TrEMBL record:
This is Methyltransferase domain-containing protein. It comes from the Eukaryota. Residues 70-245 form the Methyltransferase domain.
Length: 405
C-alpha cells in the first residue's frame, strides 16, 4: 500500500490496464498482472457479430416511452438477441425475470410476437407494466393493416428468494392451468419441481433478465441448469455487491470449495470492492479521476462522521451513495463542459460522457445548490487561514455532506 500511496494519479489510472512499475514489490506486480489476465473483455459488439441471424428492431416512440437513451439501446439490442436465441431453440415463450416496468417484455411481445411472462417482486411494477402494455397494444392495433392479435405480457408478482421458487413460478405461469399455489422458500436443498415426464402443456422457454439484481441472476442460472423446459438463458446481471455470501444456504457470490472450507468470509465491503468497474478509470482524464477519488473519500469520511455522531441518521437514511453519485456526475459534467469550452474535446476519452451524466429521464442533472450554511461556513470562521485549495475541498466536502442528507 505504501508504494501505491506515493504513486502519481496517472499510474494509478493505468492499474486496471495491468501496467506495473519496476520499483513496485514483485508480489504486487504479480497480483496486478494476474488480476488483469482474469478480466472479462468489455468491448462492445453488435448482436449481429455473434448472432448473424438476429434482427434488431428499432423501438418506436410509443414502445420507448419512459426509457432514457441507455435503456432504449439495451432493450433494442437485448430483445433482438432474445428473439434470435428463442427462434434457434424453437421456444416461443420468454420469461422476463426482474422485469421492472416491462420494457423488455413489451418489446418481445409487440416487436417479436413472443409469449412473455414478466416476473417482478413489485406489484406496483406489475400494474405499470399492464397499463403500459394496454396503451402500446392500442397503438400497434391501430397501425396494423391486417387483423392481428397482439398478446400483452402476463405479469406475475413474486419476490423470488430461491431457485426453487423461480422454477416453480416459471413452470406454473407457463402451464395451461394455474391452480398450484407457490410458497416462498429459502431452502436450496429442496428439490426443484422438475417435470419427470415431458409435460406437453409446458412450452419450451427462454429465461431472460436485464439487470436482475444480485442473487436473482444466480437463481436464473440454477434454474437454467436444472430445468429441462428452459432452453436458453439470456441474462445481464446487476448489483453484484448484493450477492449473498451466507454459506449455510446457497451463496450467490461465487466462492471456491477451498475458500469455503477455510471458512473465509469476505464481507460486504470486499464484495463491493470486487464489483467496482475499475476498467472505467483508465478512460478518465487526470482531473476527472482526482475529482472521482475526492468524492469517494468524502463519502467514506461522511459515513464515519454519521456513524459516530448521528447513528440514527445513518441507520434511517442509507442513501448516501445515490446522492453522492448525482453530485459526482454533475461535477464531471462541469469539467467536461469546461474542457469543451477550452477546445480540449480530444482529452475527453470518457465514453458516452453525455449519457453518463443524464438523469433517468434523459435530462441533464440540475445544479445542486449547497445549503446556505455550508457555503457560509467556508467563507467565514471555519475556513479562515486555509489556502484556496483546502477551502475549496472543505466546501466540496460540505456540499457532499449536506446533499447526502
Ligand atoms: C434493476 S431493475 C431492472 C428492471 C428491468 N429489467 C429493466 O431493465 O428495466 C431490477 C428489478 O428486479 C426486481 N427484483 C429484484 N429482486 C427481485 C427478486 N428477488 N424477485 C423478483 N424481482 C426482483 C426489482 O423489483 C426491479 O424491478
Amino acid at each position: 500500500m505504501e508504494c501505491l500511496r506515493r504513486e502519481p494519479v496517472e499510474s494509478l489510472l493505468m492499474l486496471p490496464s495491468g501496467c506495473v512499475q519496476d520499483h513496485w514489490p514483485s508480489s504486487l506486480q504479480e497480483f496486478i498482472l494476474t488480476a488483469r489476465s482474469l478480466v472479462l473483455p468489455r468491448e462492445q459488439k453488435s448482436p449481429q457479430s455473434f448472432l448473424p441471424n438476429s434482427r434488431v428492431a428499432s423501438i418506436g416512440t410509443v414502445l420507448a416511452q419512459g426509457m432514457n437513451s441507455k435503456k432504449k439501446h439495451e432493450i433494442e439490442a437485448l430483445s433482438g438477441i432474445v428473439d434470435a436465441i428463442a427462434r434457434s431453440r424453437g421456444a416461443k415463450t420468454v420469461v422476463d425475470v426482474g422485469s421492472g416496468q416491462g420494457y423488455l417484455a413489451q418489446a418481445l411481445s409487440f416487436e417479436y410476437q413472443l409469449a412473455v411472462i414478466a416476473i417482478d417482486a413489485s406489484s406496483h411494477h406489475a400494474s405499470v407494466t399492464n397499463t403500459r402494455a394496454e396503451r402500446i397494444k392500442k397503438h400497434y392495433a391501430a397501425k396494423c393493416v391486417e387483423k392481428q392479435q397482439f398478446k400483452v405480457p402476463r405479469t406475475v408478482t413474486c419476490h423470488v428468494l430461491s431457485s426453487d421458487t423461480l422454477a416453480a413460478v416459471t413452470l406454473d405461469a407457463c402451464q395451461d392451468d394455474h391452480g398450484e399455489h407457490i410458497t416462498e422458500t429459502n431452502n436450496c436443498n429442496q428439490s426443484i419441481p422438475q417435470i419427470e415426464q415431458p409435460n406437453h402443456s409446458i412450452p419450451q422457454l427462454v429465461l431472460a433478465g436485464l439487470h436482475a439484481c444480485g442473487d436473482l441472476s444466480v437463481n436464473m442460472l440454477r434454474v437454467f441448469v436444472s430445468c429441462e423446459q428452459v432452453q436458453a438463458l439470456v441474462s445481464v446481471g446487476c448489483c453484484y455487491n448484493l450477492l449473498s455470501e451466507d454459506t449455510d444456504t446457497c451463496p450467490g457470490f461465487p466462492i471456491s470449495k477451498a475458500a469455503k472450507s477455510s471458512k473465509l468470509v469476505l464481507g460486504k465491503s470486499i464484495r463491493d470492492l470486487a464489483c467496482q468497474s475499475a476498467e472505467r478509470w483508465r478512460n478518465l482524464t487526470k482531473e476527472m479521476a482526482l475529482q472521482n477519488f475526492d468524492i469517494h473519500a468524502f463519502r467514506a469520511a461522511f459515513q464515519m462522521v454519521l456513524e459516530k455522531y448521528f447513528p440514527e441518521v445513518s441507520r434511517l437514511s442509507p442513501s448516501i451513495g445515490r446522492q453522492g453519485k448525482a453530485l459526482r456526475r454533475q461535477r464531471l459534467r462541469k469539467v467536461m463542459e469546461s474542457h469543451l469550452a477550452m477546445g480540449k474535446a480530444d482529452d475527453l476519452s470518457y465514453p458516452n460522457c453525455k449519457e453518463q451524466n443524464m438523469n433517468t429521464d434523459g435530462s441533464l442533472p440540475t445544479e445542486p445548490t449547497a445549503p446556505k450554511g455550508a457555503v457560509e461556513c467556508c467563507s467565514n470562521e471555519l475556513c479562515t487561514g486555509f489556502n484556496f485549495y483546502t477551502s475549496h475541498k472543505l466546501q466540496l466536502f460540505w456540499i457532499v455532506c449536506f446533499s447526502s442528507l
